[in-house]
Amino acid sequence: ESPKMNTEEKLEKICHLLNQEIPYFNWVGFYFKNGEKDELVLGPYVGAPTDHTVIPYGRGICGQVAVSGQTLLVPDVRAEDNYLACSIETKAELVVPIFRNGKNIGQIDIDSHSINPFTEEDRHLMEWLCDKLSEIL
Ligand code: SME
Predict the structure, then answer these.
(1) Which residues constitute the signal peptide according to the record (predicted)?
(2) Is the predicted pLDDT of residue 72 greater than 90, yes or no?
């Protein structure tokens, strides 16, 4: 199975796995930089469809991480001014950047229907994953 899996399928599988195994990971998806443009484009994801398939750098939680290159853990999205609502169910968000050759090329975005669900362990697991992902991207 795995030798035939392309990158897209691997990312899809990761989304499914995380969504299945961690009950409060209710939407899991990838965004990637759109070529030379300063915008993110939605990649593989699992969860409710979103209107935000293209996000300019700086906009929302994702856009902020695209600019800063730093993990953003938002325990309660109601407290955020710069936030793009994908679903009224979303209460918290965790966005971790993905680097290749030192360049911020994208991110994993996790939405939760619970308030303050994410642990330091979640954050470290996602940072570890994104570090590993640079090897296949
Ligand atoms: N909430 C994100 C937008 C992406 S959706 O959550 C899938 C943001 O504020 O950037």
Answers:
(1) none
(2) yes
